[in-house]
Specification:
Helix content: over 70%
Radius of gyration: 17 Å
Low-confidence stretches: 1-13
Largest sheet: none
Mean pLDDT: 93
Number of strands: 0
Shape: globular
Strand content: under 5%
Structural class: mainly alpha
Distance between the termini: 31 Å
Length: 231
């Protein structure tokens, strides 16, 4: 349990997010210790599954860009800490590099990205992201979703870099992209922003944020299932 807390960036004090992580631990573990990730970790991943994930995630990241931009816009309208906006802006900037990485990897694996058709779980996830860009969606809800999406990848791929892991050599860079300490610190920064806003949010907003958190976990799990060919 201690490693789990460190991976998701536990704060020095409890809060809504820590409560959710305890309350929904099985669902969270299901998303961050999915068989797809465990196969990457122990080097038994079917490369056709990895290629499927790569192509589908490229489509997802392109849909992720306008979502993150909308979170930045909401942050600009908040009378909060300017450092919050700087963290989110850094996330926006990093997405250009991420898209370039996907293109490079696709070329390496012989994947023609222009021919990739988004599968239904991916389409559903992208529709979910689009729904969160609405001006009616509270900033607290949006930043919680942003943190959750990034945190799932951080903890998942960090697990593939822990002692005893044996990822295929050609997948090590993928694990390092989201599993490094620097990405963990970025996720911790997002979590702190979310926690700060949750502390001052109404009960209704906190409930909506929890619902969105659960939706992210469910959608991430379905995305891994899709990548394995289970959908």
């Amino acid at each position: 349990m201690e490693d789990h807390k460190k991976a998701v960036g536990e704060s020095s004090v409890g809060g809504a997010i820590e409560t959710w992580l305890r309350k929904h631990r099985l669902i969270y573990v299901g998303a961050t210790r999915h068989p797809f990730i465990l196969a990457v970790r122990d080097g038994t991943i079917d490369l056709s599954s990895f290629k499927r994930w790569l192509g589908q995630d490229y489509i997802f990241v392109r849909a992720f860009v306008p979502f993150v931009a909308s979170v930045l816009l909401k942050a600009c309208k908040e009378k909060g800490d300017d450092r919050d906006m700087e963290v989110i802006l850094g996330g926006v900037a990093s997405l250009n590099d991420e898209i370039s990485w996907f293109k490079t990897e696709a070329s390496k694996w012989g994947i023609k990205l222009s021919s990739i058709v988004p599968q239904e779980p991916n389409q559903e996830y992208c529709r979910f992201l689009e729904s969160l860009t609405s001006p009616e969606v509270d900033y607290t809800v949006a930043i919680t979703a942003f943190w959750a999406i990034e945190a799932v990848y951080q903890e998942s791929f960090a697990h593939c870099l822990e002692d005893g892991s044996k990822p295929l050599k050609e997948l090590t860079e993928t694990c390092q992209r989201w599993g490094t300490d620097s990405f963990a610190q970025y996720c911790l920064s997002l979590r702190k922003i979310a926690e700060t806003n949750l502390e001052k949010a109404s009960g209704d907003v906190v409930a909506k944020a929890e619902s969105v958190f659960l939706s992210v976990l469910e959608l991430e799990t379905e995305f891994w299932n899709m990548s394995q060919g289970d959908s």
